[in-house]
């Protein structure tokens, strides 16, 4: 009879924790899922010298089991990474609100730099991707399979362009969300500061003067004094 109580208490504590910190739970769940894809498919690296090909040449889940719901491992990694980062920012919103304006400006500048660099890499990868697919016989049989096209320029090992493009696209998406999030933090900080500044201060009521208070007391006592009918009040 008593063995079931710890289990119920454990589930209750878990439910309370999820209700209290939903963004943290969502962030860690997505982060562990992204890590699982990286570890599982990273260990499947073969003798193929092309970097990232194992994240592109397979589908998950198996299309024969789920014919209408599947994607490449690198796509799942991109999705889970975005949820991990976005939910992580939301869970740490209170900490970011406590940062100084200078610290938030530095974070904004660094994030904007990442957005700029990743935005350039997206266009570069697409241009190289199209050029290699159209103008060369980089993979066999020709015409090339877009998933197998790799960049070989100034690299020790060929880099799969689908893999590289989705990585930099993920970085661009994370940086754009971070910029929007930091903007929200700045707006909320300004709103809180304005609310604090417009609150009325301690207004002290004017104290009645002793002489006026004495006159009011005497007038009240006189009003309560019984009137003598034998005395002329005029």
Descriptors for this entry?
234 residues, two-stranded antiparallel ribbon, 2 strands, single chain, mainly alpha, flat, 7 helices
Number of strands: 2
Q: Which secondary-structure class do the elements indicate? A: mainly alpha
Mean pLDDT: 81
Shape: flat
Low-confidence stretches: none
Helix content: 55-70%
Intertermini distance: 94 Å
Order of helices and strands: HHHHHEEHH
Helix count, DSSP H or I runs of 4 or more residues: 7
Characterize the biggest β-sheet: 2 strands, antiparallel
Number of domains: 1
Strand order of the largest sheet: 1-2
Radius of gyration: 35 Å
Blueprint (SSEs and pairs):
Blueprint: H1 4-20, H2 22-42, H3 73-91, H4 93-97, H5 101-135, E1 150-151, E2 159-160, H6 161-198, H7 210-224
Antiparallel strand pairs: 1-2
Helix pairs in contact: 1-2, 2-3, 3-6, 5-6
Descriptive notes:
By secondary structure, this protein is mostly helical. The protein is 64% helix and 2% strand. The protein has 7 helices and 2 strands, in the order αααααββαα. α1 packs across α2 (22-42), α2 (22-42) runs antiparallel to α3 (73-91) and α5 (101-135) runs antiparallel to α6 (161-198). The model has no long low-confidence stretch (mean pLDDT 81).
Short description:
This protein has helices at 4-20, 22-42, 73-91, 93-97, 101-135, 161-198, 210-224; strands at residues 150-151, 159-160.
């Amino acid at each position: 009879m008593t063995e079931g109580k710890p289990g119920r208490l454990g589930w209750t504590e878990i439910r309370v924790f999820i209700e209290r910190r939903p963004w943290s739970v969502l962030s860690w769940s997505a982060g562990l899922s992204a890590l699982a894809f990286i570890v599982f498919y990273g260990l499947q690296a073969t003798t193929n010298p092309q970097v990232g090909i194992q994240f592109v040449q397979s589908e998950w889940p198996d299309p024969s089991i789920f014919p209408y719901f599947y994607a490449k491992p690198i796509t799942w990694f991109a999705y889970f990474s975005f949820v991990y980062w976005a939910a992580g920012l939301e869970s740490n919103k209170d900490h970011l609100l406590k940062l100084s304006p200078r610290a938030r400006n530095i974070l904004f500048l660094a994030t904007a730099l990442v957005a700029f660099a990743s935005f350039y890499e997206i266009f570069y990868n697409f241009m190289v991707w199209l050029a290699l697919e159209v103008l060369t016989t980089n993979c066999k049989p020709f015409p090339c399979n877009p998933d197998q096209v790799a960049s070989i320029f100034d690299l020790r090992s060929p880099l799969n362009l689908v893999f590289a493009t989705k990585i930099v696209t993920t970085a661009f998406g994370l940086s754009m969300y971070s910029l929007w999030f930091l903007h929200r933090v700045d707006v909320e900080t300004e709103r809180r500061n304005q609310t604090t500044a417009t609150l009325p201060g301690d207004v002290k009521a004017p104290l009645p003067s002793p002489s006026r208070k004495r006159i009011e007391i005497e007038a009240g006592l006189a009003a309560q004094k019984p009137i003598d009918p034998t005395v002329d009040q005029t």
